[in-house]
């Protein structure tokens, strides 16, 4: 039995040796691993972050009526370029019953006051002329005559004031009833005129729509929106993880989805001091003024992306960041440079800014150096001459 066990053990050892020799033979038959190389090149590296948003006018002016009523006529449409003072629309006033009744009562009260003042004036006028006749004859003293004249002058002045008040009450009644009155002319508040020059972006009302006046208690109905389309800004939002990297006065590159092949320069003017939560993330509003150098018309509200340039290096030596390795102990960057056929030597390098794909190389290699690419390739095999 012991002899049989020894034979079996020897057989296992022999088979293991044969298997090991076969494995080594197969390994020697495999194609050798080769590495490709790439050289560094001169170029630009731009470190940037991207914000999404839209193009909007720097200033939008909402034209609102200062009297309630119904739109009688509209003289402009979206896209028109108008000047300050141009007529936009005309409002037909629908009188408020309470206001109309109150204005009418004020007219009646003013007429009563005028009549009372007139009677008082006529009475003082008669007294004055009698006193004057007596004074001329020397019957009364100068003091008595002066007193009569003063009372007469006061009655005359009061009568004039009451007539002015009656005229004002009549104008108020006319304005409540029709929206205008005699003497207002071009400033009649039934005529809605542009307060600034610019392009009409929107006319949200139509003929026959009822509008509400703008006052201390109500914003009023917007009749038209005006803006200077030559002064546009980018308005967007950046994530809280990016807001710490940006600052005002940084350059922006604006790309508009609807305008292919165009980039617009801008300057970052504003970063919101407070973020707003959106979909579980804190977003900060930013604004940048566009500096248009051509006549390209950018429509308000178009979606756009802003590349915020954090750092830039032009005409510098660059390589792909994927070629850079880091020492596991010192964490210093290095690359492997080809010294001969598939013979590589490690060289430490100094890096600058990176855009996530390419990185600036300040020192360590030159344009002539061939840097090892970490993609193992096998030589092409020839299967039967094909």
Descriptive report:
The chain is of the alpha+beta class and 386 residues long. The chain is built from 4 helices and 22 strands. It has helices at 2-29, 97-136, 142-178, 240-243, and strands at residues 34-39, 41-57, 60-63, 69-74, 81-82, 87-92, 191-193, 198-202, 210-211, 224-227, 232-239, 251-256, 263-271, 276-278, 281-290, 303-320, 325-326, 333-340, 343-348, 350-354, 358-363, 370-377. The protein has a 6-stranded antiparallel β-barrel with strand order 2-11-15-13-12-16. A hairpin with a 2-residue loop joins strand 14 and strand 15 (281-290). Helix 2 (97-136) runs antiparallel to helix 3 (142-178). The longest helix is centred in the first third of the chain and has 40 residues, at 97-136. The protein is rod-shaped and about 170 Å long. The relative contact order is 0.19.
Features:
22 strands, 386 residues, alpha+beta, 6-stranded antiparallel beta barrel, 4 helices, rod-shaped, single chain, disordered C terminus, 4-stranded antiparallel sheet
Brief account:
This protein has 386 residues and is α+β, with helices and mostly antiparallel strands. Helix content is 28%, strand content 37%.
Produce the secondary structure layout.
Blueprint: H1 2-29, E1 34-39, E2 41-57, E3 60-63, E4 69-74, E5 81-82, E6 87-92, H2 97-136, H3 142-178, E7 191-193, E8 198-202, E9 210-211, E10 224-227, E11 232-239, H4 240-243, E12 251-256, E13 263-271, E14 276-278, E15 281-290, E16 303-320, E17 325-326, E18 333-340, E19 343-348, E20 350-354, E21 358-363, E22 370-377
Antiparallel strand pairs: 1-22, 2-11, 2-16, 3-10, 4-6, 4-9, 5-8, 6-7, 8-10, 11-15, 12-13, 12-16, 13-15, 14-15, 16-21, 17-18, 18-19, 20-21
Helix pairs in contact: 2-3
């Amino acid at each position: 039995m012991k002899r049989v066990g020894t034979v079996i053990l020897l057989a296992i050892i022999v088979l293991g040796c044969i298997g090991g020799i076969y494995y080594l033979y197969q390994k020697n038959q495999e194609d050798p691993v080769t590495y490709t190389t790439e050289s560094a090149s001169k170029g630009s590296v731009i470190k940037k972050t991207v914000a999404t948003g839209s193009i909007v006018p720097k200033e939008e002016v909402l034209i609102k009526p200062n009297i309630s009523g119904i739109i009688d006529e509209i003289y402009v449409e979206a896209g028109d370029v108008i000047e300050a003072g141009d007529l936009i629309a005309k409002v037909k006033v629908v009188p408020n019953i309470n206001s109309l009744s109150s204005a009418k009562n004020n007219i009646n009260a003013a007429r009563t006051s005028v009549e009372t003042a007139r009677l008082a004036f006529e009475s003082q006028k008669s007294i004055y002329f009698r006193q004057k006749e007596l004074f001329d004859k020397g019957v009364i003293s100068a003091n008595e005559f002066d007193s009569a004249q003063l009372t007469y002058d006061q009655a005359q002045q009061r009568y004039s004031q009451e007539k002015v008040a009656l005229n004002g009450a009549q104008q108020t009644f006319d304005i409540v009833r029709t929206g205008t009155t005699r003497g207002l002319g071009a400033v009649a508040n039934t005529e809605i005129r542009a307060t600034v020059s610019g392009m009409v972006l929107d006319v949200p009302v139509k003929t026959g729509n009822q509008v509400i006046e703008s006052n201390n208690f109500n914003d009023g109905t917007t009749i038209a929106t005006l803006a200077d389309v030559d002064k546009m800004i980018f308005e967007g939002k950046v994530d809280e993880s990016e807001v710490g990297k940006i600052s005002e006065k940084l350059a922006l590159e604006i790309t508009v989805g609807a305008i292919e092949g165009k980039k617009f320069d801008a300057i970052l003017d504003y970063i919101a001091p407070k973020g707003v939560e959106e979909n579980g993330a804190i977003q900060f509003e930013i604004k940048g003024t566009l500096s248009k150098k051509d006549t390209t018309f950018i429509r308000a509200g178009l979606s756009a992306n802003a590349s915020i340039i954090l750092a830039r290096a032009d005409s510098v030596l660059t390589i792909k960041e994927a070629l850079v390795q880091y020492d596991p102990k010192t964490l210093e960057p290095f690359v492997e440079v080809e010294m001969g056929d598939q013979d590589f030597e490690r060289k430490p390098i100094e890096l600058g800014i990176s855009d996530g794909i390419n990185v600036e190389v300040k020192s360590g290699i030159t344009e002539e150096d061939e840097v090892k690419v970490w993609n193992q390739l096998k030589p092409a095999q020839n299967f039967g001459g094909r």
